[in-house]
Specification:
There is one protein chain. This protein is an all-alpha fold and about 160 residues long. It is about 70% helix and about 0% strand. The chain is built from 5 helices and no strands. The longest helix is centred in the middle third of the chain and has 34 residues. The two termini are about 45 Å apart.
């Protein structure tokens, strides 16, 4: 599995933000206000980021030899969770970033200030989730094998029937 490129995450967030902004502006032109973002969203984003970080830290400790009892399957699942966190964080950052753009470029409705703040904090929570996913992917990277070990594996075994 290849590590996630931050450029892909940035592109994902940008496309989702643009799409969200277009849809919310179209709805606003018909008189609908964007939904307010509950503060619980940020708590959940940061909670997931903390769990992913702790699991990644355990894998890092395992790879450094400080935690020999960790199951290899759990380490593999942690890598998959980290990759999922990267893309989920980018999607959420784009979604709530689109809300921020729509609210900032929209009309001055009463109560927009608190909506902008809650959407911006939720967007920041998505960014934190994506960054934690990238960091945990790095934690879980297995170092390349030593050069001598590769050469020994690539050399064919001697044929016992030849003199």
């Amino acid at each position: 599995m290849h590590t996630t490129r931050w450029q892909n995450l940035l592109l994902t967030a940008g496309v989702v933000a643009a799409g969200t902004w277009i849809v919310l502006r179209a709805l606003a032109s018909r008189g609908a206000l964007p939904p307010s973002v509950p503060w619980l969203v940020v708590v959940v984003e940061l909670g997931i980021a903390a769990v992913v970080f702790v699991l990644g830290w355990h894998v890092r400790q395992y790879l450094q030899g400080k935690r020999p009892d960790l199951d290899a399957l759990r380490a593999a699942r942690t890598v998959v969770l980290a990759k999922a966190s990267c893309y989920t964080g980018a999607l959420l950052a784009g979604w709530y970033g689109g809300h921020v753009l729509a609210l900032l470029t929209g009309t001055d409705e009463p109560g927009n200030g608190s909506r902008v703040v809650s959407a911006a904090v939720a967007m920041a929570g998505g960014v934190v989730l994506a960054v934690v996913g990238l960091v945990v992917e790095r934690f879980c990277r297995i170092p390349p094998p030593e050069a001598g070990a590769d050469a020994a594996r690539e050399r064919p075994a001697p044929d016992p029937t030849t003199p």
